[in-house]
Amino acid sequence: MINNIAIENELKKSYLDYAMSVIIGRALPDVRDGLKPVHRRSLYAMRELGVFYNRPYVKSARIVGDIIGKFHPHGDTAAYDTIVRMAQDFSMRYPLVDGQGNFGSLDGDSAAAMRYTEARMTRIDREIVGDLEKNTVDFVPNYDSSLVEPSVMPCKIPNLLINGSSGIAVGMATNIPPHNLNEVINGLIALIEDPNITISELMKIITGPDFPTGGLICGRAGIREAYETGKGIVVTRALTHIERSKDSKKESIIVTEIPFQQNKAVLVEKIAHLVKDKKISSIAEVRDESDRHGLRIVLELKKDEIADIVINQLYKMTPMQKSFGIIFLAIVNNKPEVLNLKEILEHFIIHRKSVVYRRTAFELNRAEEKAHILAGLNIAISNLDEVVTMIKAARNPQEAKEGLINRFNLSEIQAQTILDMRLQRLTGLEREKIVSEYNEILIEIESLKTILGDETLIMEIIKEEFLDIRDTYGDDRRTEIVDAADELLPEDLIAPEDMVVTVTHSGYIKRNPVSLYKSQNRGGKGVTGVKNIEEDFVSNLYVASTLDTFLFFTNHGKVFWRKVYQIPLAGRIARGKAIVNLLNLADGERVAAILPVSSLDVENSDKTIMMVTSSGRIKKTDMQEFSRPLRRGKKALTINEGDEIIAAHILNGNSSILLYTQKGMCIHFHEADIRSMGRAAAGVRAIRLVGDDKVVSAIVVSSDQSILTVTENGYGKRSAIDEFRIQKRGGKGVFGIKASERNGYVIDAKQVKDDDEIIVIADSGKMIRMDLSSIRIIGRSTQGVKMINLEEGEKVVGMDSVAKDSSGSMEDDSEESN
C-alpha cells in the first residue's frame, strides 16, 4: 500500500525532528550540570572505567572506546576532541580531564593521536559525578538500551558558569564565558540568603567573566547587559607591560596574556605582517619567547617611539583586542532558553535541592533497612539462649527460620540475618556493639527525617557544600576588569526631563516633552494634543521623567518594562506607536493595564501592585518584585485557562477596592484583606461569582468621588461611594446596578467627579462625549438613565474618561496657538 505524503510536510517534520535532536542532544548544555551530552557521557564512561584522579593514567584510546561503544555512538574523533578540550587549561577555566602527553597548545597545535596520550579524571570531577550511586538523578537507557546513563549529573559545582560553554545548534547558538569559582559560589550563597537579591547586587559579587588565559575586560556595560538580558558583548584585550633596555634608549612591549580563544601563533604572525607591510612602523623586532613557564611575546620598538601609541595601534589592528559575544542559552526542562545571571543561579540551586533531597531520602531508606536488621539482631541477643536452642532443635535452616519468625514476630530478612550471624558476634563486646549501633542508627534516622521535613535544613546543607567547594577549589581571578574610558550606560546619555506620555483608547502611545507646552490662563483656547481620529481618543495622560518606568500588564498575566525614554517620540498631533509593536506580545495577548512608576519607587517603595482577573481573583505584590526587568517580560500572575487580567493598580496601604461584575454585582473591601504574594502566585478570591458572571472593572477608591456605571444597552448612572458599604473579601457582594433586560450587562465602572468628561463607544463605531455634571447622583439599586441612543442591534462596547491633555491647559509656541 502506497501513501501519498506532501513533500513540504515531510520535509518540515523531518527538519524539525533533526533540529530538536541537535538542540537537545548535541549542541547546548544543560543549565543544571553545564554539560552537553558528549561531555556528560565522557565523564560517566571514565567514572565507570575507574580512572579517577588518584588512579593511574589510562590510554585515551581505551577511554574513547568505552565512550563510543557504550554511550555515544558517534565518531571517535568527536569523543577524543571532547576529552582533549576538557584537558586544555587554556580552554577550560577548571579542566575536567587530567591529560598526560601532547594535548595541543595556544599556538593551535593539535593533540597527539589518542593511542599516544593518556588521561584520567581531575580532582574536581568527583564534585560532578559524586553521589550518582545514591539515586540523586534519573538514569535513562543508552542508545541500544543495553546500559543506562545519567540524564544529568548531580554536580555540586556550578559548572555552566565556571567553565562556560559554546555551541551552534539549528537557528540558535550559545556562548557562555567561564567565571571564577569563588565569585560564583559567593553569588550562590548570597542568593540563598536573600532570594530577592537583584542582578545589580549580584554583580558586586560576580564581577564578570574570568578567562583561563587571563587578559583584560574593558568596560562593564556589556557584562551588565549580558547578566540582565542573557545577551551582551564584552571587549577583551591582551595584558601588556613595558620594559626599557639597559641604555634606556629603547622600549619593548611585553605581552604576557592574550584574549580567550586567540591563537598565539596567528597573533604573532599578524603583528609581523603589519610590521613588514609598514602599517605599524614603530616596531623593530617581533619575538615569541614563550616557554613552559608562561606566555611572553616581545615587541621591540625603534628608538624614541612611544609605547602607548603602538599599543593602541595593536589593539585596533590585531587580535590583541577581541569582542566576546555572550549568549546565556541553555537547556531548561528540555527546552532551550536564554537566561539572565540570576536565573542561571536559581536553576542550579533548584537542581541542588533536588539532589540533596533525593540523596537524603536514599540514605534514610538505607538507614531504615539497616535499623530493621539491627532490630532483629537486638531481639536475638536479648533472647540468646532461646534462639540458640531453637536453631539447634531445627531439622534444617528453613525450619529454623520459620521458627524464629513465628516466635519473635520477625521478618524473613531479620530471621535470615540471625541465621547468618557468626558466632563471634555472640561475645559480650560484639553484643554491646550491636546495641550501640542500633541506637546510633535510630538517631541518624530521626536526623534524616528532620532534614527531609525542613527545607531550611536542606538549604543549609547546600550552603555548607558550597563553602567546602570554595575552600577546596577556589582561586584568584585571572582576568582583570577595567573601566572603559568611553563607557556610558544608556541612562548616562539620557538627560532627566519631564515628558507628557499619552495613551489612546485603541492602544497607541507616544511621548512629548513638557517643554513643548506652556501654561495658559483659564479660558484659553488650548491646542491639539492628538489629532482626532474616528473611534479613537486619548484615554490616559501621564507626566513622567525620561528615567521613570512604565509597567505594562497583559491579559495573559505578564508584565513588561519600558523606560519613558524608550517610548517613541511623536509629533504633537500624532497618535504615536501601537503598544503591540512596542512589546513582545504573544498571539491573543493585549495590554490590560499601564502603571507609571518612578525608579525610586520600584527600588525602595513599600507600595504594592494589585492585579484583578475576570474570574474574581485578586493579588497584590510588593513593588520591589518588579525591580528586575526583562525585555521579554516576566510572569506577574499565574492565570488559569479561560481567565485574564482586567486591571492593575498601585496601592499605598490604606486603599479600598471596589469590584464590579457584568451582572451588576459589586463588592467593596479594604486592601488589608489581601496579603502580599510573589509574582508567580495566582492570588485569592475577591468576589464569589454566580454562574457565568465575570468581573469587568476594578476601582481603587481614592476619595469620596462618585462611581459611574455604564451598561451595554446605553444606560448608566452615578452613585455615591457611601452606597457601597465596606465588607469582607470573598463574598457575593451587593447589587450596584440592575442588569435587567432593559440595561443589559455592565460594560465598565469608573470613579469620576463632576468636571470629568467621558466617551461612550458602541460596536458600530458611534461615540458620544459628555460632561458628567449633567448626570445626577442616584441610589445604588436604581436602573440608571439613558446615556446614548442606540439603533436596534447596537451595543455599547466601551466607556472611558477623556484625559485632560493639552486642551484648555497648555499651549505651545507655534503659530497654531496664536
TrEMBL record:
The keyword Metal-binding does not apply. It is an enzyme of class 5 (isomerase). The active site is at Y116. A type II topoisomerase that negatively supercoils closed circular double-stranded (ds) DNA in an ATP-dependent manner to modulate DNA topology and maintain chromosomes in an underwound state. Negative supercoiling favors strand separation, and DNA replication, transcription, recombination and repair, all of which involve strand separation. Also able to catalyze the interconversion of other topological isomers of dsDNA rings, including catenanes and knotted rings. Type II topoisomerases break and join 2 DNA strands simultaneously in an ATP-dependent manner. GO terms for molecular function: ATP binding; DNA binding; DNA negative supercoiling activity. A motif (GyrA-box) lies at residues 520-526. Heterotetramer composed of ParC and ParE. Heterotetramer, composed of two GyrA and two GyrB chains. In the heterotetramer, GyrA contains the active site tyrosine that forms a transient covalent intermediate with DNA, while GyrB binds cofactors and catalyzes ATP hydrolysis. Few gyrases are as efficient as E.coli at forming negative supercoils. Not all organisms have 2 type II topoisomerases; in organisms with a single type II topoisomerase this enzyme also has to decatenate newly replicated chromosomes. PANTHER family: DNA GYRASE SUBUNIT A, CHLOROPLASTIC_MITOCHONDRIAL, DNA GYRASE/TOPOISOMERASE SUBUNIT A. Belongs to the type II topoisomerase GyrA/ParC subunit family. The lineage of its organism: Bacteria, Pseudomonadati, Thermodesulfobacteriota, Desulfobulbia, Desulfobulbales. This is DNA gyrase subunit A. Keywords: ATP-binding, Cytoplasm, DNA-binding, Isomerase, Nucleotide-binding, Topoisomerase. SUPFAM superfamilies: GyrA/ParC C-terminal domain-like, Type II DNA topoisomerase. It catalyses: ATP-dependent breakage, passage and rejoining of double-stranded DNA. One of its GO terms (cellular component) is chromosome. It comes from Desulfoprunum benzoelyticum. Gene3D superfamilies: 3.30.1360.40, DNA gyrase/topoisomerase IV, subunit A, C-terminal, Topoisomerase II, domain 5, Topoisomerase, domain 3.
